[in-house]
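User: I'm putting together notes for a lab meeting next week and I want to include a structural view of one of the chains we've been expressing. I don't have a solved structure, so I'd like a prediction I can at least talk through. The sequence is below, exactly as it appears in our construct file.
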Amino acid sequence: MKKIIAIAGSFVLVIGMLALTGCGVKTDYEYDDADKYTAGDLQTSAKIEKIDIDYLAGNVDIVTNSSGEIKVTETANKDLEDEQKVRTWIDGTTLRIKYCAPVKKVSFGDLEKNLTVSIPEKTSLSELNIDIAAGDFHYDSVLAEKLNIDAAAGNIVLDLKNVPKETDIDAAAGDVKIKVPEDSGIKLELDKAVGDFKCDLPHVSDEDKEEITIGDGSNEMNIDIAAGDISISAL
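Assistant: Thanks for the context. Below is the predicted structure for the 235-residue chain, given as structure tokens.
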């Protein structure tokens, strides 16, 4: 019964999130300090310690570069009006990224946007937060102490050359694929309703507590997913 409720809840949530793309139902998109954000792509050498991303619909890629600058780049299937463009704000040492300008009743029709955030290889973040409604999320080898992912509908792919001290994943519908070095230490707390779990690395399972320990368990990872498969393998 709990699984049925979880699946039903995830489907309701996914439908609600898809509404944000303009597929019939309209909703508000508002946030604080809107006047401090700048429209369009960003390239900066500012010292950034934390990144917060709020992206309604579209794929999001977090990758590394060797240029020494953080780059925020957006692509779309059509020319964008100013209010439709990604918004950025460097708030002290925090980079804040929003999907578009605040708007009543979001409805961009058949608009499709994707976001790439490129971070210098040697940059170490204290925290990276991503909130994505509908779209896939790919995270590739960025250094971060804490990684928080909140996703409604879409797959999550994490290539973690350096496993964060704390990783928290909350997803409604979609697969989660994680790759880590073979010598990684992870203590995983898993809460899933429907879907398979597979770990190719040597591990110890405690089914009563829904805990999996990989290596020395030195890094914490929490995954809460309603419907989707989860896999952990070696890079």
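A couple of points you could mention at the meeting. Confidence is low (pLDDT under 50) at residues 1-25. The chain has one domain: 2-172.

User: Perfect, that's what I needed.
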